[in-house]
Amino acid sequence: FKNKTVIQIGSHVGNTQNDYIIDKTTTLILVEPVAYLFEQLKQNYKNKNIDNIFFINKAVSSYIGNIELTIPSQKKILKNFIWASQLSSVNEIHITNHIKDLITEKISVKTTTINEIIKDYNVKEIELLHTDTEGHDYEIIMNYTFNIKPRKIIFEHKHMDGVFKVDKNESLKNKLKSLGYKLKYKDTEDSYFEL
How many whole angstroms from its chain centre is CA 82? Predict the structure, then answer.
Protein backbone atom coordinates (compact mmCIF):
# COMPACT_ATOMS: atom_id res chain seq x y z
CA PHE A 1 0.00 0.00 0.00
CA LYS A 2 1.41 3.41 -1.01
CA ASN A 3 0.34 6.57 0.86
CA LYS A 4 -2.48 4.59 2.46
CA THR A 5 -3.74 3.99 5.99
CA VAL A 6 -4.18 0.42 7.22
CA ILE A 7 -5.84 -0.34 10.57
CA GLN A 8 -5.36 -3.88 11.82
CA ILE A 9 -7.31 -4.88 14.93
CA GLY A 10 -6.06 -8.08 16.55
CA SER A 11 -2.53 -7.76 15.18
CA HIS A 12 -1.10 -10.57 17.31
CA VAL A 13 2.71 -10.51 16.86
CA GLY A 14 2.67 -9.21 13.31
CA ASN A 15 4.81 -11.81 11.55
CA THR A 16 1.94 -13.85 10.16
CA GLN A 17 0.23 -14.31 6.80
CA ASN A 18 -2.01 -11.36 7.75
CA ASP A 19 0.86 -8.90 7.22
CA TYR A 20 0.63 -6.62 4.22
CA ILE A 21 2.92 -5.54 1.44
CA ILE A 22 3.50 -1.99 2.56
CA ASP A 23 6.11 0.66 2.01
CA LYS A 24 7.41 3.58 4.06
CA THR A 25 4.58 5.84 2.85
CA THR A 26 1.98 3.60 4.52
CA THR A 27 0.43 4.65 7.81
CA LEU A 28 0.00 1.46 9.79
CA ILE A 29 -2.08 1.32 12.98
CA LEU A 30 -1.69 -1.99 14.81
CA VAL A 31 -3.91 -2.89 17.75
CA GLU A 32 -3.15 -5.79 20.13
CA PRO A 33 -4.61 -6.01 23.66
CA VAL A 34 -2.48 -8.83 25.16
CA ALA A 35 0.63 -7.22 26.70
CA TYR A 36 3.23 -9.92 25.97
CA LEU A 37 2.01 -10.27 22.36
CA PHE A 38 2.01 -6.48 22.04
CA GLU A 39 5.69 -6.36 23.04
CA GLN A 40 6.53 -9.06 20.45
CA LEU A 41 4.55 -7.12 17.84
CA LYS A 42 6.61 -3.97 18.46
CA GLN A 43 9.84 -5.98 18.27
CA ASN A 44 8.81 -7.65 15.00
CA TYR A 45 8.16 -4.27 13.37
CA LYS A 46 11.29 -2.61 14.77
CA ASN A 47 13.40 -3.13 11.65
CA LYS A 48 10.68 -2.63 9.03
CA ASN A 49 11.07 0.43 6.84
CA ILE A 50 7.87 2.24 7.90
CA ASP A 51 7.88 5.85 9.09
CA ASN A 52 4.26 6.09 10.23
CA ILE A 53 3.57 3.08 12.42
CA PHE A 54 1.46 3.29 15.56
CA PHE A 55 0.92 0.59 18.18
CA ILE A 56 -2.14 0.49 20.43
CA ASN A 57 -2.15 -1.82 23.45
CA LYS A 58 -5.93 -1.98 23.92
CA ALA A 59 -8.88 -4.07 22.83
CA VAL A 60 -11.25 -2.56 20.30
CA SER A 61 -14.93 -2.85 21.19
CA SER A 62 -18.20 -0.93 20.97
CA TYR A 63 -17.31 1.32 23.94
CA ILE A 64 -14.43 2.97 25.77
CA GLY A 65 -13.69 1.44 29.17
CA ASN A 66 -12.45 -2.01 30.14
CA ILE A 67 -13.20 -5.53 28.96
CA GLU A 68 -12.31 -8.98 30.25
CA LEU A 69 -10.40 -11.25 27.90
CA THR A 70 -9.72 -14.93 28.34
CA ILE A 71 -6.23 -15.71 27.08
CA PRO A 72 -4.09 -18.84 26.90
CA SER A 73 -1.76 -18.90 29.87
CA GLN A 74 1.57 -17.62 28.58
CA LYS A 75 3.48 -20.17 30.68
CA LYS A 76 1.33 -23.14 29.70
CA ILE A 77 0.96 -22.93 25.93
CA LEU A 78 1.68 -26.44 24.71
CA LYS A 79 4.51 -26.81 22.19
CA ASN A 80 2.18 -28.45 19.65
CA PHE A 81 -0.22 -25.52 19.95
CA ILE A 82 1.97 -22.42 19.63
CA TRP A 83 -0.76 -20.91 17.41
CA ALA A 84 -3.04 -20.96 20.49
CA SER A 85 -1.70 -17.54 21.49
CA GLN A 86 -3.93 -16.18 18.69
CA LEU A 87 -7.11 -17.33 20.46
CA SER A 88 -7.62 -14.56 23.06
CA SER A 89 -11.31 -13.74 23.21
CA VAL A 90 -14.11 -12.00 25.11
CA ASN A 91 -15.86 -15.40 24.99
CA GLU A 92 -14.44 -17.26 27.99
CA ILE A 93 -14.90 -20.76 26.49
CA HIS A 94 -13.55 -19.81 23.05
CA ILE A 95 -10.05 -21.19 23.72
CA THR A 96 -11.10 -24.43 25.41
CA ASN A 97 -13.56 -25.11 22.58
CA HIS A 98 -10.50 -25.10 20.30
CA ILE A 99 -8.08 -26.93 22.61
CA LYS A 100 -9.79 -28.71 25.48
CA ASP A 101 -6.91 -28.95 27.97
CA LEU A 102 -5.29 -25.57 27.43
CA ILE A 103 -4.87 -23.55 30.62
CA THR A 104 -6.35 -20.06 30.39
CA GLU A 105 -6.33 -16.91 32.45
CA LYS A 106 -8.47 -13.77 32.51
CA ILE A 107 -7.14 -10.28 32.06
CA SER A 108 -8.81 -6.89 32.13
CA VAL A 109 -7.74 -4.56 29.32
CA LYS A 110 -8.66 -1.03 28.31
CA THR A 111 -10.91 -0.66 25.28
CA THR A 112 -11.16 1.81 22.47
CA THR A 113 -13.35 2.04 19.36
CA ILE A 114 -12.66 2.49 15.65
CA ASN A 115 -14.15 6.01 15.92
CA GLU A 116 -11.74 6.85 18.75
CA ILE A 117 -8.72 5.51 16.85
CA ILE A 118 -9.66 7.66 13.85
CA LYS A 119 -9.93 10.71 16.10
CA ASP A 120 -6.75 10.00 18.10
CA TYR A 121 -4.59 9.43 15.01
CA ASN A 122 -6.23 12.08 12.81
CA VAL A 123 -7.11 9.48 10.16
CA LYS A 124 -8.57 11.05 7.00
CA GLU A 125 -8.95 7.94 4.84
CA ILE A 126 -8.66 4.18 5.34
CA GLU A 127 -7.45 1.86 2.62
CA LEU A 128 -7.98 -1.29 4.71
CA LEU A 129 -9.72 -2.09 7.97
CA HIS A 130 -8.82 -5.62 9.08
CA THR A 131 -10.29 -7.22 12.21
CA ASP A 132 -9.39 -10.62 13.63
CA THR A 133 -10.77 -10.70 17.16
CA GLU A 134 -12.01 -14.25 17.72
CA GLY A 135 -15.71 -13.47 17.77
CA HIS A 136 -15.81 -9.76 18.66
CA ASP A 137 -15.60 -8.49 15.06
CA TYR A 138 -19.38 -8.08 14.84
CA GLU A 139 -19.52 -5.72 17.85
CA ILE A 140 -16.57 -3.70 16.60
CA ILE A 141 -17.81 -3.17 13.04
CA MET A 142 -21.54 -2.84 13.77
CA ASN A 143 -20.80 -0.03 16.24
CA TYR A 144 -18.56 1.92 13.87
CA THR A 145 -20.22 5.06 12.43
CA PHE A 146 -18.60 4.75 8.96
CA ASN A 147 -18.03 8.53 8.85
CA ILE A 148 -14.88 7.46 7.00
CA LYS A 149 -15.57 4.44 4.82
CA PRO A 150 -12.62 2.06 4.50
CA ARG A 151 -12.04 1.14 0.85
CA LYS A 152 -11.56 -2.50 1.89
CA ILE A 153 -12.74 -4.40 4.95
CA ILE A 154 -11.59 -7.86 6.02
CA PHE A 155 -13.10 -9.43 9.12
CA GLU A 156 -13.16 -12.86 10.71
CA HIS A 157 -16.73 -14.15 10.51
CA LYS A 158 -15.98 -17.62 11.82
CA HIS A 159 -16.79 -17.13 15.53
CA MET A 160 -19.36 -14.32 15.63
CA ASP A 161 -21.89 -16.29 17.70
CA GLY A 162 -19.44 -18.49 19.55
CA VAL A 163 -16.91 -20.96 18.27
CA PHE A 164 -17.55 -21.88 14.62
CA LYS A 165 -21.01 -20.17 14.63
CA VAL A 166 -21.71 -17.40 12.12
CA ASP A 167 -25.39 -16.39 12.52
CA LYS A 168 -24.66 -12.66 13.02
CA ASN A 169 -22.66 -12.61 9.80
CA GLU A 170 -25.82 -12.07 7.73
CA SER A 171 -26.78 -8.81 9.48
CA LEU A 172 -23.21 -7.50 9.25
CA LYS A 173 -23.14 -8.38 5.54
CA ASN A 174 -26.44 -6.53 5.02
CA LYS A 175 -25.16 -3.45 6.83
CA LEU A 176 -22.03 -3.34 4.68
CA LYS A 177 -24.05 -3.83 1.48
CA SER A 178 -26.35 -0.95 2.50
CA LEU A 179 -23.23 1.24 2.82
CA GLY A 180 -22.13 0.43 -0.73
CA TYR A 181 -19.79 -2.52 -0.10
CA LYS A 182 -19.63 -5.66 -2.21
CA LEU A 183 -18.49 -9.06 -1.00
CA LYS A 184 -15.36 -9.88 -3.01
CA TYR A 185 -14.15 -13.00 -1.27
CA LYS A 186 -15.11 -15.33 1.53
CA ASP A 187 -13.35 -18.41 2.87
CA THR A 188 -13.99 -20.55 5.96
CA GLU A 189 -12.72 -17.82 8.30
CA ASP A 190 -12.69 -14.37 6.70
CA SER A 191 -14.92 -12.12 4.61
CA TYR A 192 -13.48 -9.45 2.31
CA PHE A 193 -15.62 -6.47 1.25
CA GLU A 194 -14.75 -3.57 -1.02
CA LEU A 195 -16.47 -0.26 -1.79
Answer: 19
